[in-house]
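Before relying on records like the one below, remember that each one covers exactly one chain. Contacts with other chains, cofactors or solvent are not represented anywhere in the record.
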Amino acid sequence: MVDKHQALKVMNAAHAVYLATMSAGGPRVRALVNLRLRWRYRGPSRTARTDDFTVYLATSRASDKIAEITADPRISVYYSRPLLFRGVMLCGKAEVLDDPDLKRALWSEDWRVYWPDGAGNPDYVVIRLKPSEIRGWWGSKPFTIEAP
């Protein structure tokens, strides 16, 4: 049986996180940076690596993602380690946050290409998911973990 710590380990090591939203034309999936990656996002990972499965994603307020979440906040994210045949899917209602302290805590200097004036840019927002459903695959077996 897969436990919480094993699932978090997959989330903390996946190179990308896949976000699914609903658009007027149907579901949309895209890859985003995994802020849990300690070797890639040393500062942000201190905030993003939660033990309660909370997910943080950084994006542009003007993006389709935000328009879709505003219309329908139900989202799903997926973390995978394909060579190990492991994946974790989390579902629930997304929140779009503009909290300055949170934005600073999750900020990566690499993002100045998108937001040249830094974490205070009003176009930079954070998506937070506190999942209501956690499930996935471990080898050839599905698993479910009770959401906090």
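The mean pLDDT is 96.
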